[in-house]
Amino acid sequence: MHRSSLKTQVPIQRRPESKLQGWRRHWRYYYYRLLRLQGTPDAIARGVACGVFAGSFPWLGLQIVIAVVLATATRGNKIAAAAATWVSNPFTYVPIFAFNFKVGQWITGWHDFSIDDLDWTSSEIWHLGANFLGTMMLGCALVGVVAAIGSYVLSVRLISELRHRHKIGRR
Question: What is this structure's pTM?
């Protein structure tokens, strides 16, 4: 067979998709990823709760590691735990940690420091002393526990409902 007799392949022309279709495809992908996570809804929800708890603390380089360790200890889903730490991300660090600090101030009554004077994007927060760090960690722990309990309850219900709907839709 000569090369000239081979047909050249023409690339398939696809219609450009709208932004709405792109977002729909994006969320559908994550919907199916959630459905395919291994484990019971309870185990996945425990992983989510561990991730949300770890994400409440300002250990930016260690949140995933801590979440996976907690998920291992609670027999939760490790992938869900790692993914759930992204509740605190570059867009939400400052509001979450400022809120946690305010909660810590409310609990301890320590009002010698104003968060308005702080540059949350620098490493200076670690040099402010034990009162600041104690107040911050106490606020993070309380907010983390409440957020973990809430995310656990919502995740169990959501995952159970999504799996049930998906199972009914397949029949």
Answer: 0.73
